[in-house]
Structures are given as C-alpha cells and as structure tokens.
Amino acid sequence: MFSRHDRAWLSSAGWTSALDGAAPAHRQALEQWRRHDWPLIVTRRTPDAAPGAVCLGLALPPDGGRKLRIAVQVDAHAVARAEPALALQAAAAAAPAQWSAPLAALLADAGAIVLRAYGSLALQAVTGLHYLSASSDIDLLFEPADLHELDAGVQLLQTHRQRLPLDGEIVFPGGAAVAWKEWRDAAIGARVLVKDAGAVRLMTTASLRDLLQ
C-alpha cells in the first residue's frame, strides 16, 4: 500500500517499463533519475491507471519559472522499495541560510511531533539540484496520533509561520490529507477538501477528528 508523497525507488525492470512508456521529451530526465537512483514520488491514482499500477511523479527543477512534472505508471511489483516523505531534519540541510535558524527552532519546538518535507525543499535535499527560489514554500506533512497532537501540531505550524513560509498537509488515519491552513481556518463542523491516494472529496472537520478518537 502506497501513500501520497511516499518516495518510491524503482527496480531495474521498473525503470525499463517507465522509459518504454515515456514520451521522448521525458526520457533524458528519467535516465538521469535512474542513473542516480533517485526516488520518484507517489501521486494520487488517476482514473486511467491500470489495475495493479502505482502512479508516480517526477518534478524537474524550475526552468525560467516553468515547472515540468512527469507522470509515470508502473506495476506495483516494479517498486523496489518505498519510504515515507523525507524527515524534515534531513531536508533542512538543503535549506538556504535564512531558513536555518527558524527551521532549527521549529524542530526544537516540535518535540514528539514528526514533521516530514515534500516539494521543493525535499527534492533539493535528495537530488542536490536547484529547486528553491525566493518564492518557495516549505511543504510539510504531519500525521497526528491523536486529537491533542492534531491541535498542538496546527498551533506549532501557525506559530512558526511567522518566520517561515510553511505550507503542507495534515494526514489523518487512512491517508486522508487536508491542507493545514484550510484546517486552521475552518469553522467547527465545516467541510474541508480532502485528498487521498485515490480521490479528492469533501469531509467535515468533525468526521476527520473522529478518526483520531
């Protein structure tokens, strides 16, 4: 079972399959990822995905403001291994100097709350390529274990948002993910946009909180 934002490393047969199905314009990037053994990122399953397939994405560094994302489908057995999104502690090493002290403060205050990074900061940390710009956000995931950790995590992000461009998602049990800013601003009982591995839908904040009871 794969979750959105997981990192997925392909087997040799998986790379062969990915390259065979790629558009000619995308093959150079895919070859680069294969050569370095960099992971692809698990994305939401598309309606046309074949049974037993996993949907993956490869995002290239911005080129003149243009962001190219390559979609890849492979059989699940072609994934050699998969791991959750990169821990923020590991991703922080790739952050620009102006983020270093605020990120250290965020991590110190997080305590037992596990924060993971995806998007530009994580991709720059994994590949060493230049993804971050002056307008980049820091995309974070946190998966609360209970209601107390949910509320504490949202307060943590809100507090440190004063010094860092924090964005990202709260991931509830079962993989239901909500943008933390939308959750922060939602009235009690309001409906929020939820994304998971297979769909996008609306759910009430109360029903999501119930998942943590």
Automatic annotation (TrEMBL):
Statement: the UniProt record of this protein carries the keyword ATP-binding: no
Q: Which UniProt keywords apply?
A: Nucleotidyltransferase, Transferase
Domain Phosphoribosyl-dephospho-CoA transferase MdcG C-terminal, first and last residues per copy: 88-205
What is a single molecular function from GO for this protein? nucleotidyltransferase activity
Phosphoribosyl-dephospho-CoA transferase MdcG N-terminal domain: from which residue to which, for each copy? 4-83
Per its record, how is this protein called by name? Malonate decarboxylase holo-[acyl-carrier-protein] synthase
Q: Which domain of life is it from?
A: Bacteria
